[in-house]
C-alpha cells in the first residue's frame, strides 16, 4: 500500500522538490554574497560596538540587499502552495472514483485513507523543514541586524512554516473531500489560506500576547535595549506620560531641511513638552512564545481539518 501511495503521490512530491530546488538556486548565490559582505565589512563588530561610521556601513549593507529581501518576503506564500499541491492525489482519487478499485481489493477504507493522507502529511513536514532551513540560512545576516520579529522574517523561520504547510494541506483535503472536484477545491483552499494568513499577520498576531508600551525621550542618543530588534506595532509623538501630542509647527521648531540642526530640533521639542515618542511593541524576547501560539493555531486547525477529511472520506463516500 505504501509503495502504491508513493507511486500515486510521486508527481506532486517531485514538483514540491522542484520548487525547493529552484528556490535554492535563486537564494544560494545571493545568500553567499550576503554572508561574505557581512563578514568582510565586519558588521558583527559594528553591531557590538556601534559608531557613526559603523551605522553608515550597516545602512549600506541593508540597502544593498533590500530589493532581494523584499522579493524573498513573498516566498512565505510557498508553504500554502506546497500544502495544497500535496493534497492533489487524494482529491483526484475522490473525484475520479479510482478509490473504488483499492477498496475492492484487500485494502480497507481506513488503511487507504491513512496511507494517502499519511504520506501527504509526512511529505509536507519534510518540505516545511527544508524550506525553514533554507530561509533561516539566507536571512541570518539580516536577522543579526534587524532581528526576527518583522513579519517577513517571522513567517519564514522557527516552527510556523510547518503549521502553515499542514494548514493548507488540511484545507484542501477538507474542501475537496466534500466537493469532490479537485481543481476548484485547490483554488478555494489556497484563497482561504491566503486570507487566513493575511488576517493573522496584520491583525491577530499582535494580539496573541498583550503588547508592551514604552515612552522614550528623543533626546537619547541610543534607543533603549528593550526596543532592540523589537516588532514596532505603532508609535506616536507624546509627552513624558505617553499622551498623544501634535508636533509643533515648523516655524516654532524648524526641521533640518529648513535650517534647523538635529540637536536644536530635539531641544526645541523638549522645551515644548514634545520630546518623547510613545511606542507599542512586541519585544524580541517573545519570538518563540508567538511562534508557539501561531503554530498551535494553524497546526491544530490543520489536524482537525485532516481528521474531518479522513472521516468524510470514510463515512460519506460511496
Give a structural overview.
- The protein has 318 residues and is mainly alpha-helical.
- It has 2 domains: 2-209 and 285-315, no CATH class; 212-282, no CATH class.
- The chain is built from 13 helices and 3 strands; from the N terminus they run H-H-H-H-H-H-H-H-H-H-H-E-E-H-E-H.
- The protein has helices at 2-40, 43-48, 52-64, 66-73, 78-86, 88-96, 99-104, 109-146, 151-154, 160-179, 182-204, 262-271, 287-315; strands at residues 212-217, 231-238, 276-282.
- Strands 1-3-2 form a 3-stranded antiparallel beta sheet, with no helix packed on it.
- Helix 8 runs antiparallel to helix 13 (287-315), helix 10 (160-179) runs antiparallel to helix 11 (182-204) and helix 10 (160-179) runs parallel beside helix 13 (287-315).
Protein traits:
three-stranded antiparallel sheet; single chain; 67% helix; 2 domains; mainly alpha; 318 residues; elongated
Q: Write down the domain tally.
A: 2
Enumerate the strands of the largest sheet in spatial order, edge to edge or round the barrel.
Answer: 1-3-2
Based on CA atoms alone, the radius of gyration comes out at 25 Å
Fraction of residues in β-strands: 5-15%
The largest sheet is: 3 strands, antiparallel
